[in-house]
Design a protein that fits this description.
Residues 24-142 form the Acyl-coenzyme A oxidase N-terminal domain. This protein is an alpha+beta fold. The protein contains 22 helices and 11 strands. It folds into 2 domains: 1-103 and 283-642, Butyryl-CoA Dehydrogenase, subunit A, domain 3, CATH 1.20.140; 112-278, Butyryl-CoA Dehydrogenase, subunit A, domain 2. The chain starts with a helix and ends with a helix. The structure holds flavin-adenine dinucleotide (FAD).
């Protein structure tokens, strides 16, 4: 009887939370999706997938063996591909939904549908695209992108796989000369893919031209056996996404036709002569698209985590806020609000920044088609900055959400551990974050120096040498805070550039000096990127077409985001003199008020992310809040609970217990 009452209380608790909502949840959902029509379409696709019993896991993936896990996810992803094709739903459209969440432990075809497809589109010439793209679209070819080797990931020039042109046969000979030249990590390479885009050192006419991409068939298109000269397999269990069969690959003097070199940008002609690309940064396009996709997926993953932790915090009661009074919802604790609300704000900050980079990408693509590549470096740097910041923020945010759920956040059925493991890897792939931030820093230093010399610099970094505008905005207004960010970032770049010069005078070597300043350089890049994200959040909220109520809640979230990141970085603001100790203390006070103000909106805000229970996949975060019932039900699925006494008791425990040792 009392158990029933508890469950009823949880449902009632969330109903009360929703009753306090100050804005139209559906309107905010539309903003999150990018428009009303997109919300409707997303729901339609998600309904189609969720109503199909083939996507349900009878046995939770955590209980499956490594092989069964892979087999089950391949079953689901192939069913998903067929279903989407039957309903004429393009993959790009499906990727804006949450349907991939039916693949609980990753997606063995993800590299095929993303990196491989993008690389073909941007690196293959029109004739090659005609040859391979239709086959890839029909999944006759399943590809992966094989760049990283055991010995080298970040330093692409250090790759050791060779592709030597043989003018006699007009073929390239691919070879892996050392153990460290083994390709290592590509998703789907182990057992799924039958082809790959392989990055290898190109040699022709006795000269090495550096790493170039090649289309390489790895397996027989009918039998799926690996081809002679190709040695491949799976690399073994990872921290997460264990069904993605990340693989290894070696070549033993494996021959491919000359025309398999992807020749959109550079070419090797029949006589072996090399034709270099007109612009060496033209292949940035693929990387930018992939990084923006990562930024989008980071905001979705973080949105899932805050949905789970916020709903749970509304139904969970613990301890006493006032001695002797009933246990409050844990969401009443200010510390809990501080754990969750800034990350709810962060979802929007990441999303709005991604949209801004995407808009810029479209403009740059249009300029490139007219032969103007001027803005390409700017786009490249912004995508690096946003990928680094959003992967770091979402990973930390998900971990905070997990901790905010106490012990239950550690249980697999909460969904939080797998959200963490599938997000933290984005810090490493598509450019390791520290390395990306150092690239951003290089651009900042270069632009700062150019600005000082009166040379032209690109828009996003003009502020580094522009005069301060601090006095123009009312003190501590949003605009003033953005200006404080801008000046602090410029100040840090200036300070670091001076340090770099001093270090150079000592070392007499730019590279050693750079390394000696690299921690400070990473801080420069982080502050610049944070400034960009804050600025995009604010400008989007200020220009958004929304009702007053939705705008008001977004303004509060944006204000919280700005103040939160100022308090986290307060040293930089004090150093630059843009904010005083008193200002920071006033802002901190305001942050605590904002936490209290936004607290009643916490559940409606995460409801606006509109995740279906099936796709959220969490015992703690379901719509109805029946946390304890779900946790208990899920525990019944443990194979250990099939019998009262386990096999291990008879085999090991009993002999020990009876041995009197
Ligand atoms: C889940 C997952 C999926 C992947 N999928 C693919 C795939 O499909 N295809 C593919 O080709 N690869 C893939 N990778 C590989 C990935 O791209 C590399 O792991 C990544 O590029 C980092 O390279 P690395 O592992 O060699 O690390 P390293 O480059 O060795 O980095 C190790 C450390 O050294 C530091 N470091 C390195 N260089 C510098 C520098 N210049 N300055 C300062 N610090 C430096 C880094 O910051 C880091 O802390 C995947 C990796 C993971 C984890």
């Amino acid at each position: 009887m009392s158990e029933k009452k508890d469950l009823q209380d949880c449902v009632e608790e969330l109903r009360r939370e929703r009753a306090q909502c100050s804005f139209d949840v559906e309107e905010l959902t539309n903003i999150f999706d990018g428009g009303k029509e997109l919300t409707a379409r997303r729901r339609e696709i998600e309904h189609l997938i969720c109503s199909d019993p083939a996507f349900k896991d009878e046995v939770p993936p955590e209980y499956l063996s490594h092989e069964d896990l892979y087999t089950n996810e391949v079953r689901k992803v192939t069913h998903l591909m067929r279903k989407l094709a039957e309903h004429n739903i393009p993959l790009r459209e499906a990727s804006i939904t949450q349907v991939h969440s039916v693949l609980r432990d990753g997606n063995p075809l993800i590299v095929h549908t993303s990196m491989f497809a993008n690389a073909l589109a941007s690196l293959a010439n029109p004739k090659q695209q005609q040859q391979w793209v239709p086959l890839a679209e029909k999944n006759r070819i399943i590809g992966t992108y094989a760049q990283t080797e055991i010995g080298h990931g970040t330093f692409v020039r250090g790759l050791e796989t060779t592709a030597i042109f043989d003018p006699e046969t007009k073929e390239f000979v691919l070879h892996s000369p050392t153990i460290t030249s083994t390709k290592w990590w590509p998703g789907g390479l182990g057992k799924t893919a039958n082809a790959a885009i392989v990055m290898a050192q190109l040699y022709t006419q006795g000269k090495c031209y550096g790493p170039h991409p090649f289309f390489v068939q790895l397996r027989d298109f009918d039998t799926h056996h690996s081809l002679p000269g190709v040695i491949l397999g799976e690399i073994g269990p990872r921290l997460g996404i264990n069904s993605q069969d990340n693989g290894y690959l070696r070549f033993d003097h494996y021959r491919i036709p000359r025309t398999n070199m992807l020749m959109r940008h550079s070419q090797v002609l029949e006589d072996g002569s090399y034709v270099k690309p007109i612009h060496n940064k033209l292949s940035y396009g693929t990387m930018v698209w992939t990084r923006v996709a990562i930024v989008h997926s980071c905001s979705k993953k973080l949105a899932c985590a805050v949905t789970i932790a916020t709903r749970y915090s509304a139904v969970r009661h613990q301890s006493e806020l006032v001695p002797g009074k009933p246990e409050p919802q844990i969401l009443e604790y200010q510390t809990q609000q501080y754990k969750l609300l800034p990350h709810i704000a962060s979802v929007f900050a990441i999303l709005f920044s991604a949209s801004s980079v995407l808009r810029m990408q479209r403009n740059v693509a249009a300029s490139i088609s007219k032969g103007n590549v001027e803005l390409l470096p700017e786009l490249h740097i912004l995508s690096c900055a946003m990928k680094a910041l959003s992967s770091q923020d979402s990973t930390q945010g998900i971990e905070t959400c997990r901790l905010a759920c106490g012990g239950h956040g550690y249980i697999a059925s909460s969904g939080l551990p797998s959200l963490y493991t599938s997000t933290t890897c984005t810090i490493t792939y598509e450019g390791e974050n520290t390395v990306l931030l150092l690239q951003v820093a290089r651009y900042l230093i270069k632009s700062y120096r150019a600005g000082l010399e009166g040379l032209p610099v690109l828009p996003s970094v003009m502020y580094l040498t522009a005069p301060s505008a601090m006095h123009q905005s009312p003190p501590l207004s949003n605009q003033a805070l953005i200006e404080a960010f801008r000046i602090s970032s410029a100040n840090l770049v200036k300070e670091t550039e001076s340090r770099l010069c001093r270090q150079f005078n000592l070392e007499q070597n730019f590279h050693y000096a750079w390394n000696r300043c690299s921690v400070a350089l990473v801080h420069c890049a982080e502050l610049h990127s944070r400034y960009y994200m804050c600025e995009k959040f604010l400008s989007t909220v200020e220009s958004i077409r929304a009702s007053d109520r939705v705008r008001s809640v977004l303004q509060d979230l944006c204000r919280l985001y700005l103040i939160h990141h100022i308090t986290l970085n307060q040293g930089h603001f004090l150093r630059s003199g843009t904010l005083s100790g008193v200002d920071l203390s006033t802002l901190e006070e305001e942050m605590y008020e904002l936490l209290a103000k936004l607290r009643p909106q916490a559940v409606p805000l995460v409801d606006a992310f509109d995740f279906r229970d099936e796709l959220l996949g969490s015992t703690l975060g379901a719509w109805d809040g029946r946390v304890y019932e779900r946790l208990y039900e899920e525990a019944q699925k443990s194979p250990l609970n099939k019998t009262d006494v386990s096999k291990a008791y008879h085999k090991y425990l009993q002999p020990l217990m009876k041995s009197n040792l």
